[in-house]
Amino acid sequence: MNRKRKELIVSALNNGTVIDHIPPERVFQVIRILGLDQTGKQVYFGTNLESKKYGRKGIIKISDTYFENEEINKIALVAPSATLIEIHDFEVVRKTHVVIPETIEKIVKCFNPNCITNKELISTRFHVIYDENGLLKLVCHYCEKNTSKANFVFV
Amino acid sequence: MKNRSLISISDYSKQEQIDLLDRAANFEQHPRRDILKNKVIASLFFEPSTRTRLSFESAVQQLGGSVVGFTSSDSSSVQKGESLKDTILTVSNYCDLIVIRHPVDGSARYASEVSPVPIINAGDGANQHPTQCLLDMYSIRKTQNKLENLDITFVGDLKYGRTVHSLIIALCQFNTRFHLVSPVELKLPSAVKRFIKEAKLHYEQYIDLTEVVAKSDIIYMTRIQRERFPDPIEYEKVKNAYNLRNNMLENSRPNLKILHPLPRVNEISVDVDSSSKAYYFEQARNGVFVRQALIASILGLIS
Ligand SMILES: [Zn+2]
């Protein structure tokens, strides 16, 4: 039943993008990061929907809008499991996963309170690294200190 | 290096770092020339650091250049709450190059992004101090006649000491054997150890300094700095952890030299000063030549 309903909603979009498998608590964040609160296009979203894979999920549909990889990858930090479905004339033409980019701009605050980005009006910028345990860390472009996942505060 | 800011030692390649040391050696031979005539260097010290400031200013003036700027005590614009960006954009109208010392981490990198003239970082908070790193490398090379394959011992505050971090990272390019002496509370952070591992080099950690004196080519002493400690009780526990005395040098290697970024407090006894192995005052002198080489290279006045 679930499957049928999903198809129905997806096919309601004749041109545009569906972002699926967003963690339910991150839907509004994704909307903000992609600037969907500013768009003039139709945006639908749902959250706490049932998902076979993840238990619960969020979903966003944006009509007549397509994203460059660079742009959509900005949401990879908050929604690493997200899938992107592009629709042209009611047909799914591309399905991709978000990829964590090499640099992260603006989205996360630097954990170092003495960092210039926390003192003046400057956008943050980080280089993504993985430590010896494979855990993702962000190295601040300015103060060069690491911010680990547990300390992420989103702007 | 022409027109390129120096914020972090890794902004320059290994070859560029070596070229700078070679040029510095040349300035040591001829420290007074007129190559900075008609050039103006701004020296913006948002926090006091008398010796670094004097070293830069002496470097410029010995080459016939002039210096404008301020130190934290008389910086009215800072007191008025002007943003760093505005200060940099204003001052850059008056000079060919800016030397900046600032208490906030990352401030120098940011300054280099907004400034139309090149920036030299003279220390940004707890982050980087690349000219100190270059003068340390210069001092090591000068006293050992090489940078490769040395036993280098770091002593004291390895956790908060930014000069230690930068120097260790730079020395990872030269097949160094690292000996790290510190109280447990002040061990080298894992983020820096990572560079040693990635370079496939080795380090050993010690608590007792006497264990390692005999196997060192260089002993790099550091001050345990009160201002880096969030907790004053932690500082009291470790502040007198190390004290190098002349009689501890008896079995040391003949080529051993003792370095210290200065100012020292009590980690090196005064009785070491007369030893031929004490090198910390000459080390400070080398800072002038390194800074001359750097400024002249960035302004494209030597090649
Ligand atoms: Zn930072």
Topology:
The complex is a heterodimer of chains A (155) and B (303).
Chain A: H1 2-11, E1 16-22, H2 27-33, E2 43-51, E3 55-63, H3 69-72, E4 83-88, E5 91-97, E6 103-105, E7 125-130, E8 136-140, E9 146-148
Antiparallel strand pairs in A: 1-3, 1-4, 2-3, 4-5, 6-7, 7-8, 8-9
Chain B: H1 14-29, E1 40-45, H2 50-62, E2 66-71, H3 76-79, H4 84-91, E3 97-102, H5 107-114, E4 119-124, H6 130-144, E5 151-155, H7 162-171, E6 177-181, H8 190-198, E7 203-206, E8 218-221, H9 232-238, E9 257-259, H10 280-298
Parallel strand pairs in B: 1-2, 1-3, 3-4, 5-6, 5-8, 6-7, 8-9
Helix pairs in contact in B: 1-6, 1-10, 2-10, 4-5, 6-7, 6-10
The structure holds zinc ion.
Zinc ion binds next to loops of chain A.
Compute the number of strand runs of chain A: 9
Residue stretches of chain B low in confidence (pLDDT < 50, at least 5 long) are: none
The number of helical runs of chain A is 3
Multimeric organization:
heterodimer
The number of domains of chain B is 2
Percentage of residues in helical conformation of chain B = 25-40%
CATH hierarchy class name of the largest domain in chain A: Alpha Beta
CATH superfamily of the largest domain in chain A: Aspartate carbamoyltransferase regulatory subunit, N-terminal domain
CATH class of the largest domain in chain B: Alpha Beta
Alpha carbon gap, first and last residue of chain A: 38 Å
Give the H and E element order of chain B: HEHEHHEHEHEHEHEEHEH
CATH architecture of the largest domain in chain A: 2-Layer Sandwich
Task: Count the DSSP helices of chain B.
Answer: 10
Q: Helical proportion of chain A? A: 10-25%
H/E element sequence of chain A: HEHEEHEEEEEE
Largest sheet of chain B, order of strands side by side?
A: 7-6-5-8-9
Largest sheet entry of chain B:
5 strands, parallel
- What is the CATH topology classification name of the largest domain in chain A? Alpha-Beta Plaits
Return Rg of chain A in Å.
Answer: 17 Å
